[in-house]
Amino acid sequence: MRPIHRVFDSGAVAVRSILVVDDDEVFRERMARAFVDRGLEVRTATDVESAVALARDESPELALVDLRMPGASGLELVKALKEVDPTTRVVVLTGYGSIANAVEAVRLGAWSYLTKPADADEVLEAFEREPAHSGPADGPKAASLARAEWEHINRVLTASGDNISEAARRLGIHRRSLQRKLKKHPPRR
After folding, report:
1. pLDDT range class, residue 21, cuts 50, 70, 90
2. Is residue 5 classed as helix, strand or coil in its secondary structure?
3. How many helices (H) does the chain have, and how many strands (E)?
4. 112 and 150, same structural domain?
5. What is residue 179's predicted lDDT score, i.e. its pLDDT?
6. Which residues, listed in sequence order, are joined to residue 93 by a DSSP beta bridge?
7. How far apart are CA 124 and CA 71, in angstroms?
8. CA dihedral 102, 83, 33, 7 (to 10 degrees)
9. What is the spatial distance between Cα 178 and Cα 20, in angstroms, rounded to a whole number?
C-alpha cells in the first residue's frame, strides 16, 4: 500500500486532495510534504497501476503525474485518471526530451504540463491557470521561433527513442551541440 499523507479538515473548509505519482521516491516525498504544508490531503503512488487503484478508491481533485515511469507511461495514466473522473485536474511533469509527449498528454486531457525541476508553488500555480488546451478567443498565439525549435528538437529526440546521437544525426547537428541545447530550459511561449 502506498503512503497517504493526510491533513484533516477542521470541519469548516473542505481540504483539496492531490495524488502525486512519480517513481523518484525523494522527489515524490518532497512534493508530498510541500503539499501537506500548503493544506492539501496528499496520496502518493510510484506507478500507473497503484495510482489508478488509489483514484478508483477515492478520486483526487488534482493529480501530479511524472511522464516517464517504469512500465506504463504517464500518458496512459492521464487517460486512465480522466476515465475514472473527468473533473480531476492533471498536471504532467516532464524532463527534457519529452515536450511532444507533454503536448500529447494535454490532448488526452491533462490540465497543463511543467518541465522538471518544478516546485510545489509552480505546480499549484499550474492548476490555477487556464488549461493548456484552451486558447484565447481570437485564436492561438504563435510560438516563438526559439520555442518552435525546442519543440522540434524534442519531437525528433522522442522519435529517436531518446538516443541523442541518433537525434543529432537526424537534425544534422553535432551531438554536443544537441546536448547543450537540451540542457537549457524550454523558452517561454
Report:
1. very high
2. strand
3. 8, 6
4. no
5. 87
6. 66, 114
7. 27
8. 150
9. 31
pTM attached to this predicted model: 0.64
CA dihedral sign, ordered 126, 129, 132, 133: positive
Q: What is the CATH number of the domain that holds 170?
A: 1.10.10.60
CA distance 44 to 19: 6
| Cα–Cα distance measured from residue 150 to residue 183, given in angstroms and rounded to the nearest whole number | 11
Q: Does pLDDT of 161 surpass 80?
A: yes
Number of compact structural domains in the chain: 2
With respect to residue 175, please indicate whether it lies within any of the assigned structural domains. Answer: yes
Residues 24 and 103 reside in one and the same domain: yes
Strand order in the sheet with 17-21: 4-5, 41-45, 17-21, 62-66, 89-94, 112-115
**Based on the domain organization, do 9 and 73 belong to the same domain?**
yes
Segment 158-164 mean pLDDT = 87
Q: Is residue 137 over pLDDT 60? A: no
How far apart (Å, rounded) are the C-alpha atoms in residues 58 and 16? 12
Residue 133 resides in a domain: no
* Cis peptide preceding 117, ω within 30 of 0: yes
C-alpha cell read off for 31: 512534493
pLDDT in tens, 69-115: 888 888 899 999 999 999 999 998 887 556 677 678 788 888 888 88
Quote the radius of gyration of the chain (alpha carbons, Å). 18
What is the reported pLDDT for 50? 92
- Domain holding 34: CATH number? 3.40.50.2300
